[in-house]
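Entry 12.
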Amino acid sequence: MVFNPRFDLEGQVVIITGGGKGLGKVYAQEFARVGALVVATDIDGAAAETVAEAIRAEGGKALGLASDVSDVQSVETMAARTLEAFGRIDVLINNASLMSTLPRRSWLEIPVEEWDAVMAVNVKGLFLCCRAVVPTMTAQGRGKIVNISSSRVWEGIPNRLHYTTSKAGVIGFTRAMAHEVGPLGITVNALTPGYTLSESQIASSTGNYLAAQAEGRAMGRPQHPEDLVGAVMFLSSSASDYMTGQTVNVDGGKAMH
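Predicted 3D structure (tokens):
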């Protein structure tokens, strides 16, 4: 069998924010299964550690950390603990997001404090996490940053205006950051997942709402967390070394651009 090393993630140190639940949990598990050294961070530190324990029980290497991506000190500690445990940082998956707990309602009913909280996690969090890991990636001469946006931005889906706005900001951040760090050997790309049947989505949605999300998709079926893994891994591997500032849409062909 011929193996292409460009897709090899074995031994790569991968930080996954929001890695204790939902999509982040699946990313953590799948990266570990291909030999990556996983750092699962989450505002819920117990959930992150549970994910790390399960990975270690399967023979993988993982660290679970409590981390608030909107807090400078917490993010700096995340980077420091990663270096202490594994000695390098190869990939950052900016997956942490404030969404599932947000009520679906008119933009006129969104409290200002809730708007600020969404922006602090979903946009400021990217800035702080990148700032914490880029010095290490620069010293290494390479690094991969993958920012998780949302396919909501292509459709302008209402009723969570702050969330949709923040995820559009992720794309602008990705494009500008790619220019900032490209000369350093670091790539920055974004992913826009469609409505996905993750743990958090299922818990916060009615059955009718979940069923309606598959309408209009070329694939004609619901989207599952595993459907996103290949794209995330591609953007994290050497196979995407000359690709930066781009946004990849994975939604079963609902929004095409």
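Annotation: Strands lie at 13-17, 37-42, 61-66, 91-94, 143-148, 186-193, 247-250. The radius of gyration is 17 Å.
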